[in-house]
Amino acid sequence: MRPDTLPPDFYAFMIQAARCPKEALMLNNLNVRGISVSPKLALDSIQHLHPTSHAIKVISQLDPNPAAIPCYLPVYGTLHFVPMLLLRTQHLRKDPTGMLSKTTKATLKSGAFLATFVTVYQYQICMHRQLLKTGLIGRWNSKYLYGLAGFICSYLSIFIEDKKRRSELALYVLPKAVHSLYQIAYSHHWIFKMKYFEVLMASTAMGIIMEEPDVLSSFVRKIMFQFFQKN
């Protein structure tokens, strides 16, 4: 609902991983806030996506104020295999079959986690559209719907991932979530602008990591050891 509060590179990664056109998200963002969506803007947003004739027909007949906008492995492979090749060379030489098997399994689990996350989220959103289409629910398209869908798909998919990776994922997304919440709160004038907020967040995160190194994987600890040694 507020992609402008996220780091551009992280938002671009989310778009690529979800295979969801950012134009569709922009239109949905306008729709949720009650802003009219012109059919021309909707058509222009899908032209580069090689739309089917059915998609063009649906979009061209789109109401300016619709109830809702219609629905329309590599990452984790790098994450698991590159560290093995760079930091676990000796283990790879001693037991190549075991290491490759273990890394492949971890890659498949991480890929399944991400695929399940995206699939469950999209299924919920499209199910909402179908309920609107059949008239089983009224014209309701609240921004809180997307937050609830995100919570549900996170809860259902996180248990697919390896236990050791769950804490890493939490540490990865938590600072981004806090930063986004801060930006939203500031834009609504709920809080004042904090000078050097990014520095404060980075310092807090590093303090937590230094005090609780056990929450990190052995790979991350090895990386940090190269920079900070035992300190």
UniProtKB/TrEMBL annotation:
Residues that span the membrane, as ranges: none
InterPro entries: Tmem135, TMEM135_N
Domain Transmembrane protein 135 N-terminal: 73-185
Superkingdom of origin organism: Eukaryota
PANTHER family: GB|AAD46013.1, TRANSMEMBRANE PROTEIN 135-RELATED
Name of the featured protein: Transmembrane protein 135 N-terminal domain-containing protein
Taxonomic source organism: Rhizopus azygosporus
